[in-house]
Amino acid sequence: MNEAVRTPTIPESLISARLLMLQSRRLILATLERRLRQQPVGSLRVRVDHMRDATASAHANYCSSMLRWGSSDTPEYWPVAFTCLITTANSLTGKLRGVAPDLPLSDRYLVATDVEVLEQLVEQWRDSARSSIAAVA
Questions:
Q1: Is pTM, for the whole model, over 0.70?
Q2: Is 45 within 8 Å of 36 (Cβ atoms)?
Q3: Is 39 helix (H, G, I), strand (E, B) or coil?
Q4: Number of helical (H) and strand (E) elements in the chain, helices listed first
């Protein structure tokens, strides 16, 4: 009964607050989307779009906070880190594919090789992300 209660650090509190904000936005968005399916009203559609943007922003804030202040020793860190890597690699892959047709043939081959390597890395990161998510759950 005399166990000391550990006070969370400021970074832990910030990460926790950002996670709570993200979760609340997701719940609100789900409720609004359900209402929109039941009654497709234009004003509700605007609210849903706004809440989607707010949810995406809250997700970005949470991920940024976790990567900046989170500890790699915690299991919650790794799904965020792998998701960030996957998102960045997918974006880069899309950009490389978009510019490849405009490049000389020799450069196209190099870009195609880079895209292939990125896709293999993404698959490895997805496997690692699944494992880290299973460890948290």
A1: yes
A2: yes
A3: coil
A4: 4, 0
Measured CA to CA, the distance from residue 34 to residue 113 in angstroms comes to 44
Listed by start position, the domains of the chain span 10-70, 71-137
Cα–chain center distance at 118: 18
Contacts of 44 (CB under 8 A, 6+ apart): 32, 35, 36
CB-based contacts of 133: which residues, under 8 Å, 6+ apart? 79
Using alpha carbons, select from 20, 9, 8 the residue that is nearest to residue 58. Answer: 20
4: confidence class by pLDDT, cuts 50, 70, 90: confident
Do 15 and 69 touch, CB atoms closer than 8 A? yes
pLDDT at residue number 5: 87
